[in-house]
Amino acid sequence: MGDPKKPRKKWEGPAHPWRREVLRQELELVGKYGLRNKRELWVAKTILRRWRAKARALLALPPEEREVRAKPLIQKLYRLGLLPSPDAALSDVLRLTVEDVLERRLQTVVFRKGLASTIYAARQLIVHGHIAIGKRRVRSPGHLVSREEEPLVGYHPLSPYAKQAQAG
Hints:
The protein has eight helices and three strands. The protein is mainly alpha-helical. The chain folds into two domains: 20-102, no CATH class; 105-167, Roll (Structural Genomics Hypothetical 15.5 Kd Protein In mrcA-pckA Intergenic Region, Chain A), CATH 3.10.290.10. The mean pLDDT is 95.
């Protein structure tokens, strides 16, 4: 099983870390989405890289087998809110970008719903335990919010912000 104090690495860094255009793009994304460091961006890129690799592997299969095995991947990405419809094609999976993944993070969803004034304030609200999905407190800003969870995102019932929202 492994030592619980030494979790597996969830990210892979860039192959060429000192390319100017990559550094500039990463810095823009870190600022736009309020990420703590580039490692959070690399986690999102790794998640996307694995989904796209699965889609490329499925495209190499014969058509009848591809249809059967592609359905679960497409359904999962639709439930996560990354694909527009459950009838999407594998080519739509290959068109996904890291911004699509970053838009599904809890931090971004909280900011887009207007629960926080800035993307950085959204991160702070989440880490301090003021945000819940349903009645379950979530303290991870990197939590990927699914389509069914998105309407449930709000203030935790015991948070002073929830009391302010009810009063005001």
